[in-house]
Design a protein that fits this description.
Structural class: alpha/beta
Helix content: 25-40%
Order of helices and strands: EHHEHEHEHEEEHH
Largest sheet: 7 strands, mixed
Length: 175
């Protein structure tokens, strides 16, 4: 079974769009794996390096509201998938991006702004990591010698998609 969590990449901005997640010029690549080096290439955020170790080591992205807005391309979740990022945590998501995450077997977790503010307080911690329990619908933020657990909600269907590994695996068990 897929595990969720690990080192956190903090992207402290709202409205990160799919063109910033994976630039449109790469949409002609033949395989998902071909997208890998271009993750977040066009994201402009002070101090952020898309080719740096924080991006390469990340398994969870934490951001602000309306994450994944813009075009409805599946390539945006795919570039996370091929970079071993299994979850994005944000205040809210663009509807299609969120569903594409679930369809690919990844978690798109919404938390209230106050909870995200607490999580972002760990952005400077070199050891910032997150453990996510999809079944229990909890995530635990660790960093700076502290730990805090948050609850989140997933619809039963979205939870089933994530637990199955995505839409294709879910359909294989049901149809």
């Amino acid at each position: 079974m897929k595990t969720f969590g690990g080192p956190v990449l903090f992207l402290d901005r709202a409205d990160i769009n799919t063109d910033e997640i994976i630039p449109a010029k790469y949409l002609t690549e033949i395989t998902k794996q071909d997208l890998k080096p271009y993750i977040l290439e066009d994201l402009k955020l002070e101090g952020f390096d898309p080719k740096g170790p924080k991006t390469k080591n990340a398994r969870v992205v934490v951001s602000r509201a309306n994450f994944g807005c813009g075009s409805s391309r599946e390539h945006a979740p795919w570039v996370f998938e091929v970079n071993d990022i299994t979850a994005v945590v944000a205040e809210s998501f663009a509807r299609i991006f969120r569903q594409n995450m679930f369809n690919c077997g990844m978690a798109a977790i919404e938390l209230p702004k106050a909870d995200l503010d607490l999580i972002f307080s760990h952005a400077g911690d070199a050891d910032a990591s997150m453990t996510i329990d999809i079944e229990a619908q909890t995530l635990t933020m660790s960093g700076g010698g502290q730990q805090k657990t948050f609850s989140f909600e997933l619809s039963p269907f979205d939870k089933a998609l994530v637990m199955a590994g995505g839409w294709v695996d879910y359909a294989d068990t049901k149809y």
